[in-house]
Amino acid sequence: MPEHPTNRIAGPWCMYCNSSALPGVTMFNNSLSMNKAAVELFKRDECISVLASKYLTVIKQKEETDRTEYFEILLSSDMCMKALNEREKILFMAMALERVKNKSESIRTKEPLHIIVAIMKSCNYVPFLNEFGTEWTEGTWGYGICSVYENKIIEYAKQFLNEKK
Q1: pLDDT at 9
Q2: How far apart are CA 128 and CA 153, in angstroms?
Q3: Do the beta carbons of residue 76 and residue 118 sit within 8 Å?
Q4: How many domains is the chain partitioned into structurally?
Q5: CA nearest 82: which of 127, 128, 140, 41?
Q6: Which of 37, 111, 113, 103 has the alpha carbon at shortest distance from 68?
Q7: pLDDT tens-digit map of 41-63
Q8: Is residue 3 part of a domain?
Q9: What value, to the nearest 5°, has the Cα angle with vertex 154 and ends 106 and 13?
Q10: 42 phi and psi, to 5 degrees?
Q11: Which of 10, 73, 102, 138 is a good FRET partner for 18, with 20 to 30 A between their CA atoms?
Q12: Model-level pTM?
């Protein structure tokens, strides 16, 4: 496997996989934790500012590629959640909501929703967790709740941000 954190590895967003039986998010997080470049990236002092800058660029471009999808799953990874402090999680939540707001034919919302649910889970956001719990069905395309409950997730994300102001 190439040692570059932006290269696609098995897990959610797999272009060639389509199985609800595989725990894609767990597979992705496990593979990422074994990737030397990713481990080094998240240890760097400038990591979060670089990721935030890159994500702002993605939002401004208002388009996506396979790399965009992978970048967003990287942002929703366990590694990223551990690297972010609460203020940074709020920033990334706001950016993911902005990306959802810019939804168009060329922008899918499932990927930013994964960032949003990962943040609410890592912040132990009780209203959201009371409704959805912490264990979600996984497939090779990520968490099932992101496909089914888009509007509810967005409502909770807005509520989360309002409470954190």
Answers
A1: 46
A2: 8
A3: yes
A4: 1
A5: 41
A6: 111
A7: 999 999 999 999 999 998 888 76
A8: no
A9: 45
A10: -75, -10
A11: 102
A12: 0.86
